[in-house]
């Protein structure tokens, strides 16, 4: 009994230490063409902007804002993935993102951070409502599917379906779906655009992302394409919230990363 009690105290301690640390993102991008100093007005404005994003994003899962004047004005966008909106994981993801982006890009006025559950970007250039595929990242599983021809056909049909879903106004840029490939194997996929995009821009971003996974991921069992304006993913294991919460948090050890520019 005594040992049990000690164990639970230890577990509580470990949990509380962990919870003060912000979780690692899937990826980040610090634009080295936009260097600033930590003591600049822009830097102070970024901190104020991030505070606005942190307090306003969780309620609807999406928020854009700007802060400051003239040369020092900064713009920001934060968004949770469509199926994560309304959950506690949406707000904690945005909090982590705001903390980590400043740690990872302390000297840049233009930075982007991607988590599986959320996305955050700020810049001293106004970017809201503009499609951005200037910088992208691909993660793919090193394993290949056993029947590429059938897989590609099924994946193509599924992605066409969820792209159409994402473009329906009520779905605000998010589409997800699954297809049984065999009694034991199910293919899961989702697409997500940032909510500031027009239907046409969302469709354009998704088309570019899909083109990239087709050429780069080929017959891979899983693939993720991350852009500033959209995110596309497919896997042979569950990835929708909340089931995918742990399996998808971090990059699997044998995943391969590539930068698209
Ligand atoms: C910005 O700073 C980084 C180091 O943090 C440096 O490598 C890079 O060359 C700088 N960029 C410009 C445009 O000066
Ligand atoms: C953003 O900041 C960078 C670095 O200070 C500067 O070179 C660039 O002109 C700024 N862009 C705008 C649109 O203000
Ligand atoms: C999967 O296919 C690629 C491309 O054909 C190949 O380079 C890679 O080695 C394959 N992976 C495995 C685990 O067989
Ligand atoms: C998530 O983690 C729990 C406990 O670590 C495990 O039982 C469960 O199978 C995991 N779920 C997925 C989808 O990996």
UniProtKB/TrEMBL annotation:
<dbReference type="InterPro" id="IPR038408">
    <property type="entry name" value="GNK2_sf"/>
</dbReference>
<keyword id="KW-0732">Signal</keyword>
<keyword id="KW-0964">Secreted</keyword>
<protein>
    <recommendedName>
        <fullName>Gnk2-homologous domain-containing protein</fullName>
    </recommendedName>
</protein>
<comment type="similarity">
    <text>Belongs to the cysteine-rich repeat secretory protein family.</text>
</comment>
<feature type="signal peptide">
    <location>
        <begin position="1"/>
        <end position="22"/>
    </location>
</feature>
<feature type="domain" description="Gnk2-homologous">
    <location>
        <begin position="133"/>
        <end position="239"/>
    </location>
</feature>
<keyword id="KW-0677">Repeat</keyword>
<dbReference type="InterPro" id="IPR050581">
    <property type="entry name" value="CRR_secretory_protein"/>
</dbReference>
<dbReference type="InterPro" id="IPR002902">
    <property type="entry name" value="GNK2"/>
</dbReference>
<dbReference type="GO" id="GO:0005576">
    <property type="term" value="C:extracellular region"/>
</dbReference>
<dbReference type="Pfam" id="PF01657">
    <property type="entry name" value="Stress-antifung"/>
</dbReference>
<feature type="domain" description="Gnk2-homologous">
    <location>
        <begin position="24"/>
        <end position="127"/>
    </location>
</feature>
